[in-house]
């Protein structure tokens, strides 16, 4: 099967053969208390406190929330509002100054033999370790692992598609840590009592596919599937349609059709937490674009982009745009004093002589390309026009909230209309 619509942007996977390497310990980290979908977490440290790497510095506040852990050892310098890389607004954060000793907490490996423990106990431990979706959505993993009792989950999908151009952090994880990813998948299958696990990899990643296939061949109730490369293949609803031919209903969730999808990076983090007792305080980030120092780097969460630029000696003199994430769904930032958060998949540096959006757009010519390519079968052309003219009642009639903000409509539009940005604005406007 295949999902409706989609596009084939130029891949630019120039870092796919670069092994993961750690960056030096940064001089300080800015740890936002909102690194997840849901309510901002509650700080449990105060200015002047000494903390260790992996120490919890904030508690989840409510059901849909997540803990945050220090990614370095040092002293809490400040607790104040700091610009958030996704919202662009100032949100509460804990600023920790490094003591350059890189001391870590003692890791709790009690749950290494996870099958001996109650499922709810494992979910609580995952919640304690601050794990969220690392594909970019940052939904708290513990919530995803706690479906209502009337939702029977029979399939767990490991999402290894990574369909965004430039990004290769997941691809490198699949090549270098295939056993750990499958281990994370088995842990999730146990928690959800699922009958089968499916690892899905796009056909433009043969090395990753072969590495995972070798591991999967030795694991019962798990199979691996290769799918055609197409954007946005990695979106949950599109992936479920491709693999299982099940359609998630409008306004629904994958669990409504008996499926849970986890990014391979999230599964790797689940393995680290349950088997090794390591909280989520660092992640692999692809650094790429029009620079010579590209690669896939293990980055402490909270590291400022400005410090990454210094540590990697990146020349940004001719850089016009810095994007966090991929070019399709990423966010352009206007300052380098922005921290890496749990959902930061990549940092792209784009030169001024590249094809960069100049901000100008033109009237819709009714070509219908956005309608044919929208993977959610929406009518982006009408949404764009009605949002532009503030006809909110009509906007509501065109399934605004079903949009997954994949950016396909903006990418394909010959009039260069910022349709995705308009839809994001409309969602915020109508919710408020």
Q: What best-fitting shape do the alpha-carbon axes yield? A: globular
* Radius of gyration using CA atoms only: 21 Å
Kindly report the average pLDDT value: 95
Number of helices: 13
Beta strands, count: 17
**CATH structural fold name of the largest domain:** Rossmann fold
Give the fraction of residues assigned to helices.
25-40%
Layout of helices and strands, plus pairs?
Elements: E1 20-22, E2 28-32, E3 42-43, E4 50-51, E5 56-59, E6 68-69, E7 74-83, E8 90-98, H1 119-128, H2 141-144, E9 155-160, H3 169-176, H4 178-192, E10 196-202, H5 206-216, E11 222-227, H6 236-244, E12 259-263, H7 264-276, E13 282-289, E14 295-300, H8 305-311, E15 319-324, E16 331-333, E17 346-351, H9 369-373, H10 380-388, H11 392-396, H12 408-412, H13 419-431
Parallel strand pairs: 1-14, 9-10, 9-12, 10-11, 13-17
Antiparallel strand pairs: 2-8, 3-5, 4-7, 5-6, 7-8, 13-14, 15-16, 15-17
Helix pairs in contact: 3-5, 4-7, 10-13
Description:
- The chain is of the alpha/beta class.
- The protein folds into 3 domains: 23-107 and 279-351, Ubiquitin-like (UB roll) (Roll); 114-276, Rossmann fold, CATH 3.40.50.11540; 369-431, no CATH class.
- It is 26% helix and 21% strand.
- It is built from 13 helices and 17 strands.
- The protein has helices at 119-128, 141-144, 169-176, 178-192, 206-216, 236-244, 264-276, 305-311, 369-373, 380-388, 392-396, 408-412, 419-431, and strands at 20-22, 28-32, 42-43, 50-51, 56-59, 68-69, 74-83, 90-98, 155-160, 196-202, 222-227, 259-263, 282-289, 295-300, 319-324, 331-333, 346-351.
- The strands form 4 sheets. The protein has a 6-stranded mixed β-sheet.
- A hairpin with a 6-residue loop joins strand 15 and strand 16 (331-333).
- Helix 3 (169-176) runs parallel beside helix 5 (206-216), helix 4 (178-192) packs across helix 7 (264-276) and helix 10 (380-388) crosses helix 13.
- The two termini are 39 Å apart.
């Amino acid at each position: 099967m295949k999902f409706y619509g989609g596009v084939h942007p130029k891949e630019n996977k120039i870092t796919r053969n670069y092994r993961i390497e750690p960056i030096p310990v940064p001089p300080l980290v800015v740890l936002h208390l909102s690194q997840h979908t849901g309510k901002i977490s509650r700080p449990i440290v105060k200015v002047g406190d000494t903390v260790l790497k992996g120490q919890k510095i904030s508690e989840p506040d409510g059901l849909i929330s997540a803990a945050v852990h220090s990614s370095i050892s040092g002293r809490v310098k400040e607790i104040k509002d700091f610009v958030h890389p996704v919202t662009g607004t100032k949100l509460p954060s804990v600023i920790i100054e490094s003591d350059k000793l890189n001391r870590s907490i003692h890791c709790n490996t009690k749950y290494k033999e996870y099958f001996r423990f109650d499922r709810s106990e494992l979910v609580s431990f995952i919640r304690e370790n601050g794990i969220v979706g690392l594909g970019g959505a940052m939904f708290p993993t513990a919530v995803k692992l706690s479906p209502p009792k009337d939702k029977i989950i029979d399939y767990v999908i490991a999402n290894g598609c990574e369909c965004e151009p430039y990004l290769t952090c997941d691809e490198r994880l699949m090549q270098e840590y295939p056993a750990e990813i499958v281990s994370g998948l088995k842990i999730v299958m146990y928690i959800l009592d699922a009958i089968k696990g499916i690892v899905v990899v796009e056909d433009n990643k043969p090395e990753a596919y072969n590495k995972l296939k070798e591991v999967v061949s030795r694991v019962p109730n798990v199979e691996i599937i290769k799918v055609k490369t197409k954007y946005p293949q990695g979106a949950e609803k599109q992936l479920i349609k491709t693999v299982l031919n099940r359609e998630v209903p409008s306004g629904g969730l994958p669990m409504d059709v008996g499926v849970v999808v986890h990014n391979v990076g999230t599964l790797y983090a689940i393995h680290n937490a349950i088997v090794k007792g390591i909280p989520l305080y660092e992640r692999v980030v692809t650094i790429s674009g029009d620079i010579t120092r590209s690669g896939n780097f293990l980055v402490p969460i909270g590291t400022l982009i400005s410090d990454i630029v210094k540590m990697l000696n990146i020349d940004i003199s001719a850089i016009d745009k810095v994007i966090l994430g991929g070019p399709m769904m990423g966010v352009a930032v206007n300052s380098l004093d922005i921290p890496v958060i749990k959902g930061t998949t990549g940092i792209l540096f784009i030169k001024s002589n590249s094809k960069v959006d100049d901000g100008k757009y033109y009237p819709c010519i009714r070509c219908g390309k956005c309608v044919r390519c929208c993977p959610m079968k929406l009518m982006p052309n009408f949404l764009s026009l009605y949002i532009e003219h503030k006809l909110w009642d009509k906007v509501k009639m065109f399934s605004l909230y079903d949009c997954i903000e994949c950016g396909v409509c903006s990418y394909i539009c010959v009039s260069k209309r910022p349709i995705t940005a308009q839809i994001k604005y409309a969602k915020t406007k109508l919710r408020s």
